[in-house]
Design goal:
This protein is mainly beta. 5% of the residues lie in helices and 38% in strands. It contains two helices and 36 strands. Strands 1-36-33-30-27-24-21-18 form an eight-stranded parallel β-sheet, with no helix packed on it. The protein has an eight-stranded parallel β-sheet with strand order 16-17-20-23-26-29-32-35, with helices on one face. The protein has a six-stranded parallel β-sheet with strand order 19-22-25-28-31-34, with no helix packed on it.
């Protein structure tokens, strides 16, 4: 699990590898996204999985077909929100739009009519109650996107509920417990955050706080550096993606949380949340946890940079502030939100992040006796000049691989 290094000459090579992997796993450069309204931020690449097969919807040139999942760019699509329940599906290979053409499904340049508008609606949930399979129907014809297994082509026919008309939505680059996977021998849906919601752009702490607290699915794009030090317990509700733009995207001294501070009876912990492409900085407020995942599930933290500018001697002798970058847990029974103590967090992936210059960094567990939940994947992260909780594991399961640790003799990374 650990490969502790003291030779910092290796760090530029590590950064280069991470940059290459970023481009392969869904953090796409602006030039790869053709639509003008999404060039400001890395739109989420999506795979459309064909029911229970190992095949994805594929750009075959002038038409769509399916191919065995291979991580090819031709399998990457973007979902553009048009209105509630209505979307356009765009290939990230060439910027062409999925188009209804009679009983055929073609790929063409953007058009002004409704032939490129699609309804995407959940038709089947997984064993945990998350949306797993969707039907995709043409707004212009009412016919459903259908996979013909005999020749792997795609067509449009009346929806009957057949498996050939059911599709999974999987975020490209998402692996581990937050992804579409088998859990206890049963299929679990992948985390999609605000994928099926409107995209909004925020540049102030007030706007960010407002958008995070809405009940609708949303992709919230950070377009400026935002100081959150005067905010506390900023609530994030279900089905949100918080993503940094290609420009300014730093959030200072956040205290994001996924449940209600006071334990309101009708307010449950939020699920299905994604953080991507953000700079998260601890600067002016000691002992603050930047992202608090309280009793929530289906969480993905990906390609973010966490840095502390707070003073620390890294000795653990009482001089170090006790904040963290990420905390996954249940409330203590003595907390105001104790009603959430019985719901353990679960299905978490923390991938391709940098954690720098803090005594404590990432911890997860529960304040209850449940050990079958709190399943967390930590992969391809870089801990630089951090000391403890890198990560700390409590109740539950840790799926930890290919992380990198660095620091000089004053830093002794460990998982305590």
């Amino acid at each position: 699990m650990k490969q502790q290094r003291k030779n910092k000459h290796l760090l530029p090579a590590i950064l280069t590898v991470l940059a290459i992997l970023s481009s392969l796993l869904g953090i796409l450069p602006a030039g790869s996204v053709s639509a003008a309204d999404v060039t400001a931020y890395p739109a989420q690449a999506v795979h459309f999985g064909a029911y229970t097969t190992n095949r994805n919807l594929n750009n075959a040139g002038s038409a769509a077909n399916t191919q065995k999942a291979a991580g090819a760019n031709s399998e990457d699509w973007r979902i553009d929100y048009v209105s509630a329940g209505v979307y356009q599906i765009v290939s990230l290979t060439d910027g062409k739009y999925l188009t209804a053409n009679g009983t055929a499904c073609t790929l063409t340049a953007k058009a002004a009519d409704s032939s490129q508008n699609w309804n995407i609606e959940s038709v089947q949930k997984d064993f945990e109650g998350y949306d797993l399979y969707y039907k995709i129907t043409s707004v212009s014809t009412g016919a459903a996107l259908t996979y013909y297994q005999g020749n792997n082509t795609i067509g449009l026919t009346a929806y009957t509920g057949d498996g050939a008309q059911k599709w999974k939505l999987n975020c490209s680059g998402l692996e581990g417990y937050a992804a579409n996977a088998l859990a206890n021998g049963k299929e679990k849906a992948g985390t999609i955050g605000g994928l099926l919601g409107e995209t909004v752009f925020v540049s102030t702490a007030d706007d960010l706080e407002k958008q995070l607290n809405t009940t609708e699915p949303k992709t919230i794009v950070i377009t400026a550096d935002i100081d959150m030090q005067n905010k506390s317990h900023t609530r994030i509700r279900d089905n949100k993606t918080i993503v940094g733009s290609y420009g300014n995207k730093t959030i200072y001294d956040s205290q994001f949380r996924t449940n209600d501070t006071y334990g309101a009876v009708d307010d449950n912990p939020s699920d299905n949340i994604i953080f991507r492409n953000l700079n998260m900085i601890a600067k002016n407020v000691k002992n603050r946890i930047l992202i608090n995942i309280w009793s929530s599930r289906q969480i993905w933290v990906d390609h973010c940079t966490f840095i502390s500018y707070l003073p620390s001697d890294h000795t653990g002798n009482g001089q170090d502030e006790v904040g963290k970058f990420i905390w996954l847990n249940t409330p203590y029974e003595s907390y105001l939100d104790a009603k959430d103590n019985g719901r353990s967090p679960d299905y978490i992936t923390i991938s391709y992040n940098t954690f720098k210059n803090r005594f404590w960094t990432v911890a997860y567990g529960t304040q209850n006796s449940e050990t079958s939940r709190c399943r967390t994947t930590l992969m391809y992260n870089w801990w630089d000049e951090c000391v403890r909780r890198c990560p700390q594991i409590g109740n539950g399961s840790g799926h930890i691989y290919n992380n990198y640790y660095s620091g000089d003799d004053s830093f002794l990374p460990n998982s305590c």
